[in-house]
């Protein structure tokens, strides 16, 4: 990972993500982040008020990235069920490509929404894409929008979590096979909305 020396804030975020990805949230400390970024141990406090603030910046960045990926996945699809399936696949792809972001984004005990407005706004923006697309599916299929959203979100989020935590490795040893099976599961969900 090439740290951005000309942008210490970005270097701190990149070092934080690398630390979380390599050693988990338990290993996260401002001092270790500064060391990995090649900065003084006080440098993080010039850009972030505390540990939670740097985590909140990562959460905001993650939800913004998820929203962007979801919106991009919707392009070119007019069928509501296909659109919903496409954002499900985008959600899974985002989680696998950005595991440190994903693992932190849903840890509300680490980043309080009432304290970090940017993180909350980004989370709401990503959630709104899900809600709007679920509404399209519900309108066309006659199903309850809340049930459509709950089933799809819990299934895809659970699938992403299982894959990131290695819980499917024994059942499906090869990563390409796991990803193929996950895509098939998302497509199977699509049939429920038709």
CATH homologous superfamily (4th level) name of the largest domain? Tetracycline Repressor, domain 2
Radius of gyration: 18 Å
Number of domains: 2
The pLDDT mean sits at 93
Write the CATH fold name of the largest domain: Tetracycline Repressor, domain 2
Helix content: over 70%
What's the N-to-C terminus distance? 44 Å
Count, helices = 9
Using DSSP, what is the number of strands? 0
CATH architecture of the largest domain: Orthogonal Bundle
What percentage of amino acids are in beta strands? Answer: under 5%
In terms of topology, how is this protein built?
Elements: H1 8-23, H2 30-37, H3 44-47, H4 51-74, H5 80-97, H6 99-105, H7 117-141, H8 145-164, H9 175-192
Helix pairs in contact: 1-2, 1-4, 4-5, 4-6, 4-7, 5-6, 5-7, 5-8, 5-9, 7-8, 8-9
What is the compact description of this entry?
The chain has 194 residues and is mainly alpha-helical. 72% of the residues lie in helices and 0% in strands.
Describe this structure as you would to a colleague:
The protein is an all-alpha fold. It has two domains: 1-48, Arc Repressor Mutant, subunit A (Orthogonal Bundle), CATH 1.10.10; 56-192, Tetracycline Repressor, domain 2 (Orthogonal Bundle). It has nine helices and no strands. It has helices at residues 8-23, 30-37, 44-47, 51-74, 80-97, 99-105, 117-141, 145-164, 175-192. It starts with 7 loop residues before the first helix and ends with a helix. The mean pLDDT is 93.
What attributes does this structure have?
2 domains, single chain, Tetracycline Repressor, domain 2, Arc Repressor Mutant, subunit A, globular, mainly alpha
